[in-house]
Amino acid sequence: MITTRTLLATSLLLSTTLALRAQPEPPPAPGQIGLSLSSTATASGKAELKAGANTYDHVEIKNYDWKLAQRIPLEDRRSLAVGLDYGVTAIGTRNRHHATATPVPLPSDLQSLGASLRYTHPLDPQWILTGSVSAGSHVAETGLLSDGWGAGASVIALYNQSRELTLVFGVVYNSLSENFKVIPIFGLNWRPADKWSVNLGLPKTGVTYKLNEKISLDLSVSGERGSYAVNDDPLPGAAPRSLADSRLQYLEARLGFSCDWKINDTFRVSGTAGQVLYRQFKYIDRDYTLTSRDLVPFVTLSARISL
């Protein structure tokens, strides 16, 4: 059963993530070849998880992500973007170091490795059309590149209605999603003043203030979402049915305050601090779910190199 809170968190993350992927990459600075490498690390605090009548405390999450992308310019402002992405989610608990505590029925880590191809076609000064395809392997602990394969595709249109308003809408397919395999999306970017913008899914959901040409501040919703193949039951007997050969869906929604600093055309860094609003681990083909009941802090640091 999908709760209102789960639906809200999932919808926010879908609009944010999918519109971000649809947003065209800016052209490289003079002298650059369009190659970029980015790295992001997030640490979320310890929270209590509940699964039915069972409680598991001190569960903390660390996310690491590395992305390599190459933009290939074509004629008439069209472009291709080829990407490679590797991510790890480490699940840590006090229970793994205390023999008297209750073990947690979760894998120690989730891994993903994927590739993507995106085509961007400006139709005129107002309309930009993008299409993308992606494929990757998403697994819990073991089996990367042999299990957990999934594919995705999207067709997104951006419409610059005026200097103050940009709209984005389209359709997205994700083969690994439980409830949202094919969904329509909508986002907007409203710029009521030179230094202020309000975003819904383009490229994030929140409010941004541009302090100067190099530094911007924002308050926004972010998070993690993925579905992973589980080969081995992490804790046999904990769930009503065996968790071996299942799929685990992970969802974490966050609200944070960020500072982004563009040092120069090559280096960019940012930091975010805030609260985790919602956390869920769901074995989607076993009807077994662990859900957070706490608001806990998180910190994110990221860096990008453009060449």
Structural description of this entry:
With 307 residues, the protein is mainly β. The protein has one domain (4-306): Lipocalin, CATH 2.40.128. It is 6% helix and 62% strand. It has one helix and 15 strands; from the N terminus they run αβββββββββββββββ. It has one helix at residues 4-22, and strands at residues 35-51, 54-73, 79-93, 109-122, 127-140, 149-160, 165-174, 182-193, 196-200, 205-210, 215-230, 246-262, 267-283, 288-292, 296-306. It has a 15-stranded mixed sheet that branches. Strand 7 (165-174) and strand 8 form a beta hairpin. The relative contact order is 0.19.
Alpha-carbon distance between the two ends: 47 Å
The profile of the biggest β sheet is: 15 strands, mixed
Oligomer: single chain
N to C succession of SSEs: HEEEEEEEEEEEEEEE
What percent of the residues sit in helical stretches (DSSP H or I)? under 10%
What is the number of helical segments per DSSP (H or I, 4+ residues)? 1
As a percent range, the share of strand residues is over 45%
As residue ranges, the low-confidence spans are none
**How does the helix and strand content classify structurally?**
mainly beta
CATH architecture: Beta Barrel
Total discrete domains: 1
Overall mean pLDDT stands at 87
